[in-house]
Amino acid sequence: MDQNWDDLRLFLAVAREQSLSAAGKLLRLDPATLGRRMARLEKTLQTVLFVKSPQGYALTEAGSDLMQRATKAEQAMRAATAGVPVQSDRLSGQIRVGAPDGAANYLLPQVCAAIAAQNPDLDVQIIALPRVFNLSRREADMAIGVSAPTAGRLVVQKVTDYKLHLAAAEGYLSAHPQIASVADLQQHRMVGYIPDMIFDRELDYLADLGVNRVALASNSVSVQVRMIQQGGGIGIAHDFSLPATPGVRRILTEEVSLTRAFYLIRHADDRRNARLSAFADALAVGLRAETARLEALAAGQTAPKA
């Protein structure tokens, strides 16, 4: 790769953090200076690497391609510094990923299958549990979380935002009173989390809507979605779950639209592990692309290329 390594180092930080300010803190570099460096890199390569928005910097297809190549260069640099030979580009061995069951059911299977297809000697294990994982006890090599932990020796990277909306089965909607506003929800059965088993405050969706009773509840996202699909009632569903749930559609999308985020969480001691870092980068890129693809399908739009 003939690009200046320092430019690539800065690029990787912005790509992983999806924010000039967050990357700037890690690099101890002024965000404005970092922004100019990224603009210069795009000009040099004559391609757009990021989609810039108030929410941050998201990689374009060209940016994702450069990230993969830059990650390989980073691995080579680390190996050379450590005095060990550069390993094959392919990943091998076992990697265990912990995730809440929404991500584990609707996103990770296809993302991890794609990574495994490119790395035949790699074994990927997905632990789907509706709770926070303890990486210090090595329950997993890395975890997906819905909030950024503030305690412990951890490295936290925001992966992507995702959207949630109220949803109901077509059959339920046709058999029950019309829903024209949030106030109308009081006349309907609600599906959601078991209140005392909500493991992260980011998941307490219904309380903000003034819903006091959850008629059908589960600590599992996939069970909630199935309850909605079976006509059990109305609930908050991840947009990325709806393409896999025929007969269910979003409602009151203008009045109720929630945005949450997935974070990739790793133990600080693993930062210099080239194998885990390469997998983490591939996982983050895949999760961003698959979330965008499925959300576009849910919204009835043309899905971007995977």
UniProtKB/TrEMBL annotation:
It comes from Sulfitobacter delicatus. It comes from the Bacteria. This is DNA-binding transcriptional regulator, LysR family. InterPro entries: LysR-type_TF_proteobact-type, LysR_HTH_N, LysR_subst-bd, WH-like_DNA-bd_sf, WH_DNA-bd_sf. One of its GO terms (molecular function) is DNA-binding transcription factor activity. CDD domains: PBP2_LTTR_substrate (cd05466). Belongs to the LysR transcriptional regulatory family. Residues 1-60 form the HTH lysR-type domain. One of its GO terms (biological process) is DNA-templated transcription. Keywords: DNA-binding, Transcription, Transcription regulation. SUPFAM superfamilies: Periplasmic binding protein-like II, Winged helix' DNA-binding domain.
